[in-house]
Amino acid sequence: MYYRSGLFFLFFWVLLAGKVYAEELTVSNTEELFQALSYDREITAIKLKPGEYVGNFIVSEPVHIFGEKGAKLIGPNNGYVLTVESSDVIVEGLQVEGGGSQNAGIYVKGDRAYIHHNEIKNVFHGIYARDSYGHRFENNVITSFPGDRNYKGYGIYFVSAPNSLAVGNYIHDTQDGIYVSFSDFCEVRENQMIRARYGVHTMDSKNILISQNEVRESINGLMIMQSYEVFIIENFFYLNTAKNGTGMFIYDTFDSKISSNMIKGNFKGILMENAQRNRLEFNTILENDTGLELRKKSNGNTISFNNFLENTNQIITDKDNVNQFNKDNFGNFYSDHGSLNLNNDDLVDFAYKSGNIFYNIAKQEPLLQVFHQSPAVNLWNMVEQYTPMPSDSFIVDEFPLAKPAPVNWKSVSSKGEVGEGRDFQGLQIFIFMCVLLGSTLILFTLRRARYEA
Length: 453
Fold this sequence. Notes:
Blueprint: H1 2-23, E1 24-27, H2 30-38, E2 45-48, E3 51-54, E4 57-59, E5 64-67, E6 71-75, E7 82-84, E8 90-92, E9 95-98, E10 104-108, E11 114-116, E12 119-123, E13 125-130, E14 136-138, E15 141-144, E16 156-159, E17 165-167, E18 170-172, E19 176-181, E20 187-189, E21 192-194, E22 198-203, E23 206-211, E24 214-216, E25 220-233, E26 236-238, E27 246-254, E28 257-259, E29 262-264, E30 268-273, E31 279-281, E32 284-286, E33 290-294, E34 302-304, E35 307-309, E36 313-317, E37 333-334, E38 352-354, H3 357-364, H4 375-386, E39 395-397, H5 424-452
Parallel strand pairs: 1-2, 2-5, 3-6, 4-7, 5-8, 6-9, 7-10, 8-11, 9-12, 10-13, 11-14, 12-15, 13-16, 14-17, 15-18, 16-19, 17-20, 18-21, 19-22, 20-23, 21-24, 22-25, 23-25, 24-26, 25-27, 25-28, 26-29, 27-30, 28-31, 29-32, 30-33, 31-34, 32-35, 33-36, 35-37
Antiparallel strand pairs: 38-39
């Protein structure tokens, strides 16, 4: 009896041992990796030892692929380096490079891929997800082909890939940083994008959250096109100074919210065209050539509690646009507006006007653009702003704020350029309390020492 029981347990121990062995494989060369990916038996994890693995690799079963430091997937001069055909695949800790001139380092066709902490370079697209859903692409470093080659792809590219998330990625020198196309209910959060054409680009998508990203040295920080219900919150767009470049370009976009963003030092801060029924509030628009430009068919927008600070032109608008520049009788703050406030409330006592007339005349006569920012034009605009004569070329904010609107926001900058917004008055109170407490302790110590002496 005991002999039979021993054989029974030995048999199942061998089975279990074989199953445990089959669940995770360690590979150290290209041939072993191809074999691991083609095994019929179930494998839950494949670990890559340091070294180069050359080829076009296909993942057809749910598996966790992860590499030790120095594990590199290198594609030949054609095709995708790594194609994820199965759902529920994890790719982690790999260096990926090479592949075809129009292909991606990682191409995702299955659902719910989790791709994180990889370095992807010298590729056309970094990560390309198509006709699938539920992905999470996190903390990857991505760049395209080196140098000034014009045919670069996108860092992360969602095409018909709804309910997906791109978070914490560092993307530089690509065509677009993150491109969301025909993909609803996606989130783009806490990414850094540098030297792209567009940092974040959306097309024909709805219910998209774009939050706490940083985009700089690009043409447009955002390019939002033909999209609905986009939430653009607490981002930082700066030094996007290419000619006709903008911090945000909002085009054919409707029913969206743009709130608590820092838009600094761009050629244009926010540019809107055929953008309707959107809310702009609590944004800081600082040191741009033009703070906000409203081109044709940009109507029905509510623009309130924004801070327009030291822009060459605060607001420019097409004369046919109709927008509301206040909410509940509270408008925006303008650094070039007077501070007359006889009743000492939250508002300046006279309306703010901006436009400007030269912008509309130059649209009809483009040759007049040579006088842009000339002393004569600047003087003309200043006189028009303060004259009581009404003009269809100007927006009128009837309720300008006497002080900047309070804005709290965060940046993902890792260099300490910008951090979480703070209330300066609260900081002063905190410092005062620290000094008071420190002084009290010193006096108490001195009195005690004198008493003991």
